[in-house]
Amino acid sequence: MRSLSIASLLKLAALVAAAALMSACWRGGGTKDHVVQQAANIPASFDVTVLADKDNQFDFDGAPLTSEDLKSAFRYRQEESLPMSSVLLKRGEKQKVKKEHEAALARIAEQMHFKAYVEDSDGVISELQLSGSASESK
User: Fold this and answer.
1) Residues 25 and 42 placed together within one structural domain of the fold
2) Helix axes 99-112, 67-79, angle to 10 degrees
3) Where are the beta strands (DSSP E) in the chain?
4) Cβ distance 57 to 66 under 8 Å?
5) Whether residue 53 sits in one domain with residue 18
6) What is the mean pLDDT of the segment spanning 13-20?
7) How far apart, in whole angstroms, are the C-alpha atoms of residue 130 and residue 5?
8) How far apart are CA 131 and CA 138, in angstroms?
9) Which pLDDT value is given to residue 6?
């Protein structure tokens, strides 16, 4: 009976070692650790999240809004002293993020003095900024 328990302990130790090895391989292998790949200036959480919608509109709290309507909704949040320092633009349910979405949100962010971010198809988040020519043509 005593030899059976030693054998069981050895099997258990081997199983734990194998699980630890597989865990280490899984973390370093093919998966992406998005926190490491993203820039240091990305916040841990965002005050507002909007989704890309069809016809270059945005889905904000379930309502499709044009860029002007979105700007009005953001202005209301600022007037009500609701958090409005970071906004994340994500892919919508049926619409991917287009350059037009990014440009409109970047323009609003610059005008209203908050930071805008976009999540790409790989889940990597980057900050949106107007290019030099776009900011000069305001």
Assistant:
1) no
2) 30
3) 48-53, 57-60, 63-65, 86-90, 115-119, 125-128
4) yes
5) no
6) 67
7) 68
8) 12
9) 75
pTM of the predicted model, to two decimals? 0.66
Structure tokens at 10: 């050895």
Residue 108: count of CB within 10 angstroms of its CB: 20
Residue for token digits 């005050």? 47
Give the Cα separation of 22 and 89 in Å (integer): 35
User: Helix, strand or coil for residue 104?
Assistant: helix
- Number of domains, the chain: 2
Q: Which amino acid is at 10?
A: L
DSSP 1-29: -HHHHHHHHHHHHHHHHHHHHHHHHHHHT
Co-location of 11 and 46 in the same domain = no
Q: Which domain holds residue 21?
A: 2-31
User: Are 131 and 106 within one domain?
Assistant: yes
C-alpha 54/C-alpha 69 separation (Å) is 15
pLDDT band at 5 (very low <50, low <70, confident <90, very high): confident
Distance from C-alpha of 65 to C-alpha of 21, rounded to nearest angstrom = 49
Q: What is the pLDDT at residue 41?
A: 77
